[in-house]
Amino acid sequence: METRELRYFVAVAEELHFGRAARRLGIAQPPLSRAIAQLERRLGATLLARDSRAVTLTPAGAVLLREGRAALDAVAAADRRTRRAASTAAGEPGLVLATKAGASSELLPKLLDAYAAEPDAVAVEVLLCGIGEQERLLRDGRADVALLHLPFDSTAGLDTEELVTEQQVVVLPAGHPLAGRAQVRTADVSALPDLPLPRWPRRDGSYPDGPGPEVRDHAQLFQLIALGRTVAVLPESCRTLLRPDLAAVPVPDAPAVTTVIAWPPHSRSRSLAALVSTATRL
Amino acid sequence: METRELRYFVAVAEELHFGRAARRLGIAQPPLSRAIAQLERRLGATLLARDSRAVTLTPAGAVLLREGRAALDAVAAADRRTRRAASTAAGEPGLVLATKAGASSELLPKLLDAYAAEPDAVAVEVLLCGIGEQERLLRDGRADVALLHLPFDSTAGLDTEELVTEQQVVVLPAGHPLAGRAQVRTADVSALPDLPLPRWPRRDGSYPDGPGPEVRDHAQLFQLIALGRTVAVLPESCRTLLRPDLAAVPVPDAPAVTTVIAWPPHSRSRSLAALVSTATRL
DNA sequence: TCCGGGCGATACCCGTCGGGTATCGCCCGC
DNA sequence: GCGGGCGATACCCGACGGGTATCGCCCGGA
User: Fold this and answer.
1) Which residues of chain B are within 8 Å of residue A42 when distances are taken between CB atoms?
2) Is there a smaller number of Cβ atoms within 10 Å at the N or the C end of chain A?
3) Which CATH architecture has domain A168-250?
């Protein structure tokens, strides 16, 4: 199976429409139809049900969509990592660290400083990404290492080391009645009638349904909290980012958040090992 | 990057010889040279140093060898799993469970029986494999789930659940002086002058150097122990396999062995989830 | 009921490229 | 100094990927 065939199939499987998929791939529709038919013939499997007026995935097609995406990511990672290894001709290439924008605001600078002080540290590029994107970045080679936050992020298929565990706090407008409390419970927070919890984007960029406002980053979120439109439960290290018009109150019964450093399991880079070792010693 | 190019490169990188690699691939040498040159041109990287009389990997080539193998495994897994999903047209396909031949002799039958008793269990094929092969089988799609034994096997890049932890025992000829002891220490075992520990094959099938005999499986091993040529330290569940002319003595200070059930992280199969859940309830 | 339009499949042509054979250039070792 | 091993180059051919034109099918509206 060639990667070209996989790219073609994934495009059709995602669009469920040969014409659109062909346009996305920059080719005409007939060669695409032919390529898919040939792939089906070679696999001995029907991947798509061409029910007139609608294309749907067969069970085998669903398997190939999932496995094919993973395989294409692995190929993309091989390409990217090889280019990077070549472009930094002498010595170790730099590292790319992925983390959610706004998260780990305390830990990250400490980690970067500590690592930079190591004898043979290499340059670390920080790649800020959206919610849940880190795993993808590691799998397709755009990043070498990432900071994840359990239990929100998935560490499936990654090697990890736990770094710190923090309690969560609820972030409120400074004048809110709960802001004076020493602590609150999750029930108190979710029961606030006029302050629905915000909605974060899903993997594909769409938002779940619900009453809360749609938010993309912490600056947006804090603005909306200050305006009295929402509240949020965040790890307590977010206190360092708080504006003076916001207050944070511990929520002891909210799940603790563990920051972990994660990397692709087959990595064998000296500099990555040094960075991880520095992180665990913080 | 096409999988054909990756296959070609991996072959050359493993053989470090264009002629042999071409023969292995079933093509002539000139097209192979051209394909590698084209891959290098497209990546903008020199992958192989053609020092006259010897081909060696550049650092970028070493990266592509490692990443390329992983990518080829992922493509092979996509192919195999799609075929299997298609061939079992109705309902869930069966599961393939990989385990080391001779290991988990107590746990495996219990697991298979318990799972078979589940309401919608599917057929489970057991694939006996060599030391350390399970990870590869899971990655390239030949197996869906495996039993691994920590700390010997690597679980890098796999999702796992721990099943049981056992102490280890030393297996001796029944008449050996230590056979009557209630327990021994690792120091006692490694100090036995005429009974060197056996040598197990490495990933690539070669054996490490050393005085002990080369063994491939437990039947071989027990035969050699009975002949007084070696001793072995094994998990205590191996007692059920012992022949009457062998004895087992606990070794409390040997590392405990944990059997884990492992599967590829992106699996989303109902029957796999049921098997894992059955295993954890044993 | 018929017609138009949307969509995937088919037919057919062309250019590129992958693969083969022959040969060269280089270097090492006898 | 020469023979042989090895990778690169030259050149040819056939296969296959991609394009355009068109068909067949089905649904929906008049």
Assistant:
1) none
2) C
3) 3-Layer(aba) Sandwich (3.40)
- Interchain pair A82, B45: CB under 8 A: yes
Q: Is B199 helix (H, G, I), strand (E, B) or coil?
A: strand
Domain locations along chain B: 3-84, 93-158+257-281, 168-250
Per CB distance under 8 Å, which residues of B are interface residues toward A?
1-4, 6, 43-47, 58-60, 62-64, 66-68, 70-71, 73-75, 77-79, 81-83, 85-87, 141, 156-159, 264-266, 268
Which residues of chain B are within 8 Å of residue A160 when distances are taken between CB atoms?
A: none
Interval A114-173: pLDDT, tens: 999 988 888 888 888 877 788 889 999 999 999 999 888 888 888 899 999 999 998 888
User: In B, which residues are within 8 Å of A66 by CB distance?
Assistant: 266, 268
The CA–CA distances, whole Å, from A38 to A5, A17, A137, A216, B47 equal 9, 17, 31, 42, 33
Tens of pLDDT, residues B109-154? 889 999 999 888 888 888 888 777 888 899 999 999 999 998 888 8
Residue B5 CA, nucleotide D11 C1', distance (Å): 23
The label of the residue with tokens 């899971």 reads B138
Q: How far is CA A52 from CA A2, A10, A40, A49, in A?
A: 28, 20, 18, 9
Tokens linked to A117: 């002080």
Task: Nearest by CB to A79, from B1, B47, B74: name it.
Answer: B1
Architecture of the structural domain at B93-158+257-281: 3-Layer(aba) Sandwich (3.40)
